Each structure stands twice: as C-alpha cells, then as structure tokens.
Amino acid sequence: MGPFDRFNDRAKRVLALAQDEAVRFNHNYIGAEHLLLGLVREGEGTAARALDSLGVELSKLRTGVEALLGRGNWEKPPSEIALTPQVRMIIELAIDEARKLGHSHVGTEHLLLGIAREAESTAKLLASLGVTLEMVRQQVIDQMAHPGTARASRPSAPPSAGQSAGTGGPFDRFSNSAKKVLALAQDEAMRLNHNYIGTEHLLLGLVREGDSVAAKVLSSLGVELSKVRLAVKFIIGAGDTQAAPSEITLSPRTKKVIELAIDEARRMGQATIGADHLLLGLVREGEGIASGVLESLGVTMHKVREQVFATLGRPDHGPVGQSIRSGVFIGHDRSTPDPFDLLDDAAKRVLAVAEEEARQMRHNWIGTEHILIALLRADGVAQRALRELAITLEQVRAGVFKAVPPTETEVTEITVTPRVKTLLGKAMMLAAPVSDRVRPQHLLLALVADPEGIGSQVLTQLGATAERVRETVDRLSAG
After folding, report:
1. How many CA within 13 A on the CB side of residue 421?
2. What pLDDT sits at residue 79?
3. Residue 137 above 50 pLDDT?
4. Percentage of the chain surpassing pLDDT 90?
5. What are the contacts of 54-59 at 24+ separation with CB within 8 A?
6. Alpha carbon of 258 to those of 179, 277, 280, 320: distances in Å?
7. DSSP string, 429-478
8. Longest C-alpha distance within the chain, in Å?
9. For residue 337, what pLDDT is reported?
10. Tell me: the pLDDT tens digits for 285-307?
11. Under a CB-based contact definition with an 8 Å cutoff, are residues 214 and 170 in contact?
C-alpha cells in the first residue's frame, strides 16, 4: 500500500491543487510552497481553517511564492511534475503525525503539521506574512481541539478609532469601553510599527482607556502607561519597516484572549463584553507578552483577577481552577487552614490552566493528562525539567489527544478525577519536608508517582520515565 492510499479526500485534493499551483508558476516540481498553496486553496479542512485564522491569504501567499521562487521559463507548461524530496519528507512526517495522534487516515491537518516540522523554505515564506511555524503548529492543534469551528467565527481586523467594532461576530457584543480598548491597542501597534495586535498592545489599550474597571485596577496595582511601553519596547522592540503597516491583524493569543473574555462575561451572566472581561481574559491566557510585562512590574495574574472582582464588589464567579478547589478541598475540616492556601501562586496557576485545557477539549473531568499539559504551560522548575527531557507541549498534547480525544459535547460542569485528588494530596506530602508551599515541581513528582495515570503514561511513551523526571527535578531544584 502506497502512502497516498492513507490520504483522505481532502488531502488528495490538496495534492491536486498543489500540482495546479506548480503549473500556474510554470514549475516542473511540487515543492513545500505549492503544497502550502494547495492547503489554503482547499478551503474547508482543518489546515485551511488554521491558516485562515492566522491571516494567511491565497493572494498574499502567491505573491510571496513568486518573490521567493520566481516563475519557470518554459515556453509551455511542463508535461511532467514530480514531488521534491522535501515534499516526500513532509508526507512521511504527515503520516507520522497521524500515527502519533491515533488517526487512521492522513488529512490536511497532518500535512500542515508535516510542513511545520520540516519546511525551512516555507518558514521564510510564512515569516513574510508575520507567521511562524510554531504559530502554525499551535493553531492546527487548537483547531483539532475545537472540531467544527467555523471559519466565519474568526475575528477580523480590529475596529479603528471611532469605528464600530466589526460588522458581525463577537465585536457586536463589545461595550464602548471594550471597543475603545481595541482601537487604542491598534494605535499602540501602529506606534511600534507592528502589523499585528498582540496581548502587549491589548494591555497598553486597557491602561490607556482610563475610565473602566480594568483601567482602575491596573492603576491601583501601579501599572502605568510609561512603564508598560518601556517594558514592551524592551522585550520585542519596534518594527523595522520604514512605513506604518497597511494592515493590522489580531495575533492568535489576542484572539484567544477575546474568546476567554466572552467566556468570562458568560460566567458572570452578562451579555455585553466590557474592558473588565478583556482584562480577565488577558490574565487567564497567561502566556503572552502582556503577562510577562505585568510580572516584570511585580503584578501577578492572581492579584489582577482578585482586584477586578474586589473592584466590581462581587465574588469571583468561579475562575479557572475553581472546579479543582471545590471538587477536592471543599468539605475539609474548617478548623484547619484551607489546603488550597498551601499551594503557591504558580501551582494554583497550573490547576487553573488544567481546567482550561479540559474545557477546550470538551472534557467534563480534570485528569492527570490536563495537569501535565498545564505543567508545560507554567514557568518554573517543572517546565524546565520536562523541556530538558526533550518533552514539548506539542508532543504531550498529541499523546493526550490520542489517549482521550476531544469530544463534541459542550461542557457545563467539570468534576475532578480521584487520581487528581490523590495527586494533590501526594504533592502536599512531597512539599512538606522542604517547603511551606506546594510548587509545580511537587505536582509533577506526584504525577509521575502514579504510573497508571494518563499523564504519567504519556510521559513514559515519550521516554521520560518517573526516575528520569525525579532526577532532573531534584537537580534543577538543588541548583
């Protein structure tokens, strides 16, 4: 059986479209660039949705290919078109990606993952559109985690100052203050000559807006416009083009922040998205440059969230991580301190992200698999240990997706598995002799101590045995 026998209809169509693109350029070969064009042209598959969400448009991509490769000088279209060795390698990698994910057929998503793993030439091409291979890979994973997401739901360019925020979709629900924040964020992006709005620009917009709860919270925490601008410029610098960008798009992280802001409003029972929801979404996303800027100013994500609800004069409606707290700790002996307080901020953040991962996969439980993903998303000894063992977020997500694939059912309530309850208790015991707080590394050590848990099994399959994890954590902790 040849490799193409495992291709589904969409993947086969991509190859046909790639050949058509090669003919269009009068090339006598199909390279990675033509394959990328075919993926965009296919239009309906996971890869097309991922590329579309990153702003990769067919016309711009064709312009980039022509600038990079030029056109063939044949007097008539070539009669025979062959796959380049690079494309053959991409196909092998696509088959490998499908195998790792437990899929029986190769689809467009696997082809795009193969490109993200191998194709240096497409890296240059995509970079000209403001997209990295890592962004591509992450977006494919996100699309697989949210099956059935419509392309039409992708936020378009943000509203400019004085304009209504969008003509449809989530921006219709934005309050005037939220629309103003996006307009100011766009202004900050243009000030820095950036052709995208990242979480850092959104933070600047929230500080500049001035009148909302979000602006007041940031001000009360000592987050000043001049300090944020200085930190952003230091971290990423200004764009190097002479002219201001003609088109500004939302970065994938900013789109994620908007999704989380909508969820925050839903949890609070509010139909309108305000600046306070955007700030709550920003701190929930927690991995963008904005979170790094805030932490460099001595402001934790937990503190921001706490201050928002204090300013609103209402209890926290159940942040990410609340399910774990209520599912494990509520009902303990009230004469003793709340065990949740024994976790440091980083460990609480791990629990928060674990619930977020479970919701994104539409799982109605939080298991050790979600904890493992969250540990790779949280800075600290645990993350460094896993990375030193060559364990990446993409590998772990793929292993988890294979073990417990995303479901189609929307989640309303999430429970905590008995294994996670045991894991937390074990982590407290591991921390007790040397620390007064449970840290993420204690969660990791407790996770690998349970060989039957999915999190531990995924690590073992990737070559990170419990013994290797313990040795690495001990060494990094001692250092």
Report:
1. 12
2. 54
3. yes
4. 17
5. 54/129, 54/131, 54/135, 54/136, 54/139, 54/252, 55/129, 55/130, 55/131, 55/249, 56/126, 56/129, 56/131
6. 12, 9, 10, 16
7. HHHTTT-SSB-HHHHHHHHHT-TTSHHHHHHHHTT--HHHHHHHHHHHHH
8. 87
9. 53
10. 777 788 878 878 888 877 888 88
11. no
Tokens of 432: 């007790």
- Give the Cα separation of 446 and 382 in Å (integer): 11
Residue with tokens 């294994």: 419
Q: Which amino acid is at 343?
A: L
Handedness of CA 87, 88, 91, 93 (dihedral sign): negative
Tell me the pLDDT tens digit for each residue of 210-246.
788 888 999 998 988 888 888 888 877 777 655 455 5
State both tokens at 340: 């949740």
Say how far apart CA 13 and CA 28 lie, in whole Å: 19
Contacts of 171 (CB under 8 A, 6+ apart): 155, 158, 159, 164, 165, 179, 182
Stated pTM of the model: 0.42
Residue predicted with more confidence, 348 or 118: 348
Place of tokens 């088959």: 95
Residue 128, C-beta contacts closer than 8 angstroms, at least 6 positions apart = 64, 67
Give yes or no for a contact between 245 and 195, defined as CB atoms under 8 angstroms apart. Answer: yes
